[in-house]
Amino acid sequence: MKTKSIIAAILFATNIIAQTKPSIAVLNIDSKGIVNNSEEMGYLVRLELEKTGVYTVLDKYEVKEITAANKVDLNNCYSKSCLIETGKLLKVDKMLSGNIERFGEKIVISLRLLEVETGKVEKTESTEYLNLPEIQKMVAISVKKLVGQEPDPNMVKLLIDYDIPIESPKNTLKLNGPRMGFSHTLGDAGKILTESDPKNGGFNMYPVTFQFGWQQEFQYISAGSFQALVENIFLIGGLESGKFIPSYTPLLGFRFGKGQGAWEFGFGPTFRVIKTAKGFYDSGYGDNGDLLMSDKQADKNKFYLSEDFNTLPDSVRRTFNYSNPYSTVERLDNRGNLKIDAGLVIAVGRTFHSGYLNIPVNVYVAPRKSGTTIGMMVGFNIQKKKKYQ
Hints:
By secondary structure, this protein is an alpha+beta fold.
C-alpha cells in the first residue's frame, strides 16, 4: 500500500512539472543545398528539442492531424504570420521555426522562437558550421544554444571552430607548404665538407649549409590536445657552395597542445645523395710507426684512396705481399662516386598559428658516426579541410 502511494505521488509530481513547462510546436524546417528535406529537418529539430527537456513538445502526429484538418500547408508555412496562426490552432505557447542552408564550405542553421500570444519573436539563433556530414549534431548544438543550454564542447570544436585541427577520425588534415633553414655538420664529415683541397677529398663548402624545399603533412589522428601525423620533407642544399645535394625525409610526428605554441616531436629516416670513396688512413705501421704513403709525419692519418696503394713502388708493395696493410674504409669524399646515404633524424619544435596560417619552427639532429648534423627549419602552410558534397 505504501509503495502504491509513493508511485502515485511521483506520477502526480511528474504531471505537475509537465504542466508547468511551456508547450511548443515545430513545423517543417526550410532546407536548401543539403540532403535532408524540410520535413526531415523538422523531425530532427523536434527530436533535439525534446532532449533538452525545456518545453512540452507537441507530438508530430498531432501536429499533422490538426494542420491537415485546418488545411495548413506545412511546406509553405515559414512566415511569422502563418506560424502564429498555426500556433493558435495547435493551442501551444510557442512555435519554433527556422532554416538550414549550405553556402559553399559552410552550413548555416538559423532558428527562431516565437511567442504565440504576443506574436513576437522571443529569440533567434544562427550558427555557421563546417560543411561536414553531421547534420543532427549541428541541429543539437543550435537547439541547445537557442534554449540556453551549453552544447557539447567537443562537438563545437568538431563542427564550428575553424582555426583548430578537426578532431574526428573521419577526417584527415593536410598541411603542405615550403620549408627553409640551415644545417651544420660536425666531426670528420664536417671537416671534409669544409676542406678546400679537392686532392684531399674536400668539398670546399661553407661551414653552414642553406636548405630549402617542400613539406607535405598528413594528420591521421586528432584527439583533444594530441595529433599524430606523417610528414614528407623534400630539400635541396649546398647551392651557396655551388653544390646540389637533394634529400628526402619521411617523419612520424606527434603534436601536443593547441592554439599558439603547440609543441611537436618527430623522428624518421633521412635519405640524401652524397659522394663517398673507399680508401685507408695512413696511421703508421710496424714497431716504428712508419708511414706508408709519405715520409712526412705531418701526413700521418691522411686519407688515401684504395687505388693509391698501387702507385707505390713494386719493392714496397712486395714487402706486404702486394696487400695493403691498412683496413679499407668508406667515407665522405669528393673524389668518390654518388650514392644514397641513409640516417636518422630527430626533430622537435613548435607550430604557431595565425588564422588559417600555420608557422612551424623546428630544430633537428641527425646523429652519424662520421659526423652529426644539426639544423633548424622554418616554414608556413595553409590548413585545408576535406570537402564534402
